[in-house]
Design brief:
Distance between the termini: 35 Å
Oligomer: single chain
Protein name: N-acetylneuraminate (7)9-O-acetyltransferase
Pfam families: Cas1_AcylT (PF07779), NXPE4_C (PF24536)
Structural class: alpha/beta
Mean pLDDT: 91
GO molecular function: N-acetylneuraminate 9-O-acetyltransferase activity
InterPro entries: Cas1_AcylTrans_dom, NXPE4_C
Number of helices: 29
Helix content: 55-70%
Subcellular location: Golgi apparatus membrane
Low-confidence stretches: 302-319
């Protein structure tokens, strides 16, 4: 709530999540890879000055650049390091005491015309305590020496990043006899002197020596694992090096999951236009509401003195009510989008890294399953995959996916593989639902297509504008959208084969199967021809929608991961509807789907198949290999679940209203979680109430679910206005939408040009 500099928090405060994961206070720390570290430090000169503890930090730092480095340098001497490929120089200078020699070295950089180091990391004290046997005179001299070098460090801080590393505590019981005088009491006294003296002459200046005090907190938790009681264990010093890398590199590299030390991104031109639009909508709605209220007061029903009857107020015109509804929707949406922006683009709320434990994933799963079973009701119809059942299916899957994301369970491979099946099941329902609609209704009109596309994409388009993110970033919506268009094209292309036509002549069934075989062939070809796939989606304007980080590889990977499951959904719908038409299945209340014997056999096979897939997924050792098999085998568990859920008549006749309620807003929940439940584009967790993790999750979840529900209502209301049933009006609206996207593209091009 204090706001302020997240760099300061990164350097001074935090806590451990588990044993090895360090969580800075209020912000997220990025884990830098070697390539990222090199890109950040290219053409840079880094200097570490101090004793053996600083030498440890030096080695951990250069291992971030080159993991092959071994600690073979001279113990009490200077150690150079150079990475010629990136022109990086990192030097360790042996100055175990703050004295005249250290002062002379610092002074040479302030006076000389030689280029100064870009980063200077300094720290020393334990040698002064050891050599002078912890005497008070040594402490007094240390204060004098710190005072003499402080102006030099502050002068260097004008053009370089200068860090003073405070002394870590020691584990006194493990110290050797020659180091017994190094006590934590003495270390605290030396640290206090350094903090008080440094920056004393430049308190109002921006050029300050940064005090690296977080190492003390880390050491307090881990020094017991030290080999000699003085030097930190390797994991702790690696954490310190990573913190140092985050402090310097985050503002340069701008990693999504590294919110520490990152300034708030400036508003883009499109964001400013969106802000103006939502502001005008809010004012417009308020003005119209006031006008309507005044009109209502003027036309308020009053008694006619002559007849004694009540006069009815004048009815407002439909145009005004439509405009008011439109402004009302945009007014609410504007307030919601402001909350989105404040949560995940402004540095207003805290963000934290995820940390996975089995309990953080499985306990909430058990909790929601108990709640779901508690809210059990009878279905309105007992058909297989009826509306209540599919809503329930979407609902519990979405809740499991949300828990998976907030708990960081993607690091646990068995959970990851089961979640992949849930995502595939969503796509299976896409194939099943849209195929069933087109096959039964035969409605291939523009109105139906526009309604579906609007409902799927409205929220994502708004978020792309407000949050300055590419369309492909919200990968699931592009995936569902493209598959819907593929289903539509497959069935709408000549010859249009629908159930009514096929009932007249059975040969049409073979024609439809031929269409499905052609679709499967195209899917197979594109999945193994990355070049052809990328050529299709690299053409403008498709490239504007499906590129991420300058290429369509991410889109190809996402599409390929569940490439067959929509086809499986379509084929299942075709077979099910054919069986239903020929009355080969029984869907009466309480009746099993087939005869008792067949039902029992299918139920047994389904349970075995379901468990077999779970055993295979749980035994996965390599994510890449399992992802290769996933598209072909995920349908096994999906079909097994459908049969287990629908074969017994009683089970088919009930559903969970709790899960079904969430299922109706599952798309909004999936998209909204990116910014107002999670943080940093799903990489971290939003913290509204720091210090109380459970209470924070409760509050942020309540707001998140309410917002998702409200957006669902807004989308439904706007769909009725933006996509009318009248074809001529719809054509005008489509021209307006085309103009909107043309304007968006124009402003996007202007933005890109200004950035370059």
């Amino acid at each position: 709530f204090k706001g302020g500099d997240t760099c300061e928090y990164l350097l001074s405060s935090g806590r451990f999540l588990g044993e090895k994961v360090w969580q800075p206070h209020s912000c997220m720390m990025h884990k830098y890879k070697n390539s990222e570290a090199k890109n950040c430090l290219i053409d840079k000169h880094v200097v570490f000055i101090g004793d053996s503890r600083i030498r440890q930090l030096f080695y951990s730092f250069i291992k971030l650049i080159n993991p092959q480095v071994k600690e073979e340098g001279i113990k009490h001497g200077n150690i150079p390091f150079e990475d010629k490929s990136a022109s990086i120089k990192v030097d360790f200078l042996w100055y175990p005491e703050v004295n005249g020699s250290m002062r002379q070295r610092l002074k040479s950089w302030t006076e000389s015309s030689v280029a100064k180091p870009h980063i200077i990391v300094v720290g020393a004290a334990t040698w002064s305590i050891k050599i002078h046997n912890g005497s008070n005179e040594a402490l007094a001299q240390y204060k004098i020496n710190i005072t003499s070098i402080a102006p030099l460090l502050e002068k260097l801080a004008i053009s370089s990043d200068v860090y003073w590393v405070l002394q870590d505590p020691v584990y006194e019981d493990m110290l050797s006899e020659s180091r017994k005088m190094i006590t934590n009491e003495k270390i605290d006294a030396y640290n206090e002197a350094a903090v008080r003296i440094l920056n004393s002459s430049s308190r109002n200046s921006k050029a300050k020596v940064k005090v690296f005090s977080v190492s003390k907190l880390i050491a307090q938790e881990t020094i017991m694992k030290s080999a000699d009681g003085l030097h930190l264990p390797e994991s702790s010093r690696d954490t310190n090096a990573m913190i140092l890398m985050n402090v310097y590199c985050n503002k340069i590299m701008k990693p999504i999951d590294g919110s520490c030390c990152q300034p708030q991104p400036p508003l883009t031109l499109i964001q400013k236009i969106a802000f103006c639009f939502f502001t005008l909508s809010i004012f417009g709605y308020l003005i119209i509401s006031l006008i309507h209220r005044n009109n209502y007061r003027k036309n308020k029903s009053c008694t006619d003195l002559e007849s004694g009857e009540e006069k009815k107020p004048a009815i407002s015109t439909p145009n005004v009510s439509t405009l008011e509804m439109l402004l009302h929707c945009f007014c609410k949406l504007g307030l919601i989008m402001t909350y989105f922006y404040l949560c995940d683009r402004a540095n207003l709320f805290m963000k934290e890294n995820k940390f996975y434990t089995h309990s953080s994933f499985f306990i909430p799963i058990v909790y929601i399953l108990v709640l779901g079973v508690f809210y059990t009701e009878n279905t309105k119809e007992t058909k297989m995959l009826n509306r209540e059942q599919t809503d329930e299916w979407k609902g519990w899957m979405q809740l499991v996916i949300l828990i998976y994301h907030i708990s960081g369970a993607s690091t646990f491979l068995p959970v990851y593989m089961h979640i992949r099946v849930l995502v595939a099941a969503y796509l299976f329902q896409t194939g099943y639902g849209h195929f069933s609609y087109f096959w039964i209704k035969g409605d291939f009109g523009v109105y139906r297509v526009c309604q579906v596309l609007f409902r799927l994409n409205f929220l994502v388009v708004v978020l792309c504008i407000v949050m300055d993110r590419p369309y492909q970033f919200y990968y699931f919506v592009p995936l569902v959208t493209v598959w819907f268009m593929i289903i539509y094209a497959t069935l709408a292309v000549w010859p249009q084969i629908v159930q009514k036509k096929a009932n007249g002549n059975c040969l049409w069934h073979f024609g439809l199967l031929l269409k499905l075989i052609c679709l499967l062939t195209c899917i197979y070809f594109l999945s193994y021809s990355q070049g052809a796939f990328e050529k299709i989606f690299s053409f403008w304007p498709l490239s504007k929608c499906f590129e991420l980080n300058g290429n369509v590889y991410e889109w190809w990977f996402r599409w390929k991961l569940d490439r067959y499951v929509v086809f499986h959904g379509m084929l299942f719908a075709f077979i099910y509807l054919a069986l239903q038409k020929h009355q080969m299945i029984s869907e009466g209340k309480g009746d099993p789907l087939f005869s008792n014997r067949v039902s029992n056999v299918l139920l047994f096979i389904s349970i075995v198949s379901f468990l077999t897939y779970s055993v295979w997924a749980s035994s996965c050792k390599n994510k890449t290999e399992c992802n290769e098999l996933h598209p072909s085998v995920s349908v096994v568990q999906i079909l097994a679940f459908i049969l287990i859920r629908n074969i017994p008549g009683y089970v088919r006749s009930v559903y969970s209203s709790f899960f079904a309620w969430f299922g109706k807003i599952s798309l909004e929940l999936f998209i909204c979680q990116y910014h107002i439940w999670l943080a940093a584009d799903t990489k971290g967790i939003l913290v509204l109430i720091p210090g109380y993790p459970m209470f924070n999750v409760l509050v942020s979840t309540f707001i998140f679910v309410c917002v998702a529900h409200e957006i669902s209502q807004i989308t439904n209301d706007l769909a009725q206005i933006v996509v009318p049933k009248d074809n001529s009006t719809l054509l005008k609206r489509l021209l307006c939408i085309a103009g909107f996207f043309s304007g968006l593209h124009f402003f996007s091009a202007m933005q890109d040009q200004s950035r370059h």
